[in-house]
Amino acid sequence: MVSALANILETNESGVLAKWLELLLTSANAGGGRIKEAELKAQCREFLTALRQALAADMGGDTDIQSDTFERVRDLLSDVSRSRAIQGFSPSETATFVFSLKQPIFELLRQFSQDALTLADESWRVTQVLDQLGLFTTEVYQKSREEVVARQQDEIAELSTPVVKLWDGILALPLIGTLDSARTQTVMETLLQSIVDQSAEIAIIDITGVPTVDTLVAQHLLKTIAAARLMGADCIVSGIRPQIAQTMVHLGVELNVVSKASLADALALALTRTGRAVVRVKTPIASTTSH
Q1: 240 and 120, same structural domain?
Q2: Is-contact 187 156, C-beta < 8 A?
Q3: CA dihedral over 110, 111, 117, 120, signed as positive or negative
Q4: Which residue of 1, 96, 186, 247 is 20 to 30 Å from 21, comparing CA positions?
Q5: Distance in angstroms (rounded) separating the CA atoms of residues 85 and 80
Q6: Tens of pLDDT along 136-152?
Q7: Can you tell me the distance from the alpha carbon of 180 to that of 217, in angstroms, rounded to the nearest whole number?
Q8: Residue 222: which domain range?
Q9: How wide is the angle at C-alpha 105 spanned by C-alphas 86 and 21, nearest 5°?
Q10: 117, 135, 154 - which closes a domain
Q11: Cα dist from 130 to 55, 65, 136, 254, 290, whole Å
């Protein structure tokens, strides 16, 4: 029974912990000093205790780690996996935390098992449990990494779509990179909120930093322009280069909005629409006074 292993672990827990910690510290997947030895030891001790308690409570010999008896073990591994994902550990480094426990447990079983059959049965059960836990660790790690990457992408998207106040009632939204559906949503939300906050009349969407405009990108632009118009702001598109203009003509893409070649031209038009003008001020020539 697996509970027999629990009794063996309880008696020899300190020895197993020491051997396991030694393997982790000397392993090539130890993490390069990104985690302190004291913290690693505390994680190992807590996990080993939770595993022993789960095995002791599992009187039926069930090896399904999704059962209630392994809830504490799963929670601990989830915390370990998430922390390692944030710290930049690789999947193999994270999985090693579980798989390296096999060696000290197998050595313990060989030492205390009375016969070959018992050794084989208990070794197989422990292998099933640790393999499942290792896979569980990798799955949580992968999910955590995806969450980290998604959060970083959102932060980059927000930073790469700043709305700049050029003048009272005039905003500029410089776009850099390719527009996709997710980024268009971020752009739209940022622009609309800025229109409300600044009571803007005109929004200039500058696409100088957009490498290419195809039908899909044009659709995303049209959605942003339509949303801005619903908020009461007129839109001007600037930064359409000759190559992009030719591509749009060949594709039959029509933005149905006033466009200018440069942001400066768009700003001049926006100022005109709002009853303003930029004029050159002649610097008066300083008169020379003879003393």
Answers
A1: no
A2: no
A3: negative
A4: 1
A5: 9
A6: 999 999 999 998 888 87
A7: 7
A8: 164-273
A9: 45
A10: 154
A11: 12, 9, 10, 60, 97
Do residues 102 and 127 touch, judged by C-beta distance below 8 A?
yes
The structure tokens 């020895």 sit at: 15
Task: For residue 34, give both structure tokens.
Answer: 């990104």
Q: How many residues does the chain have?
A: 291
pLDDT tens digits for range 2-44: 456 778 888 888 999 999 999 888 875 555 567 888 899 999 9
Q: Residue 162: which pLDDT band, with cuts at 50, 70 and 90?
A: confident
Residue 145 and residue 183 in one domain = no
Q: What is the mean pLDDT of residues 107-123?
A: 78
Are 200 and 170 contacting, i.e. CB atoms less than 8 angstroms apart?
A: yes
The count of structural domains within the chain is 2
What string of H, E and C letters represents the secondary structure of the chain?
Answer: CHHHHHHHHHHCHHHHHHHHHHHHHHCCCCCCCCCCHHHHHHHHHHHHHHHHHHHHHCCCCCCCCCCHHHHHHHHHHHHHHHHHHHHCCCHHHHHHHHHCCHHHHHHHHHHHCCCHHHHHHHHHHHHHHHHHHHHHHHHHHHHHHHHHHHHHHHHHHHHCCCCEEEECCEEEEEEECCCCHHHHHHHHHHHHHHHHHHCCCEEEEEEEECCCCCHHHHHHHHHHHHHHHHCCCEEEEECCCHHHHHHHHHHCCCCCCCEECCHHHHHHHHHHHCCCCCCCCCCCCCCCCCC
- Judge whether 133 lies within some domain: yes
- 219 and 112 share one domain: no
Tokens standing for 29?
């997947």
Do 83 and 221 belong together in one domain?
no
Angle at 52 between CA 88 and CA 61, to 5 degrees: 115
Beta strand 164-167 with 170-176 is antiparallel
85, 189: one domain: no
Domain boundary among 106, 129, 154: 154
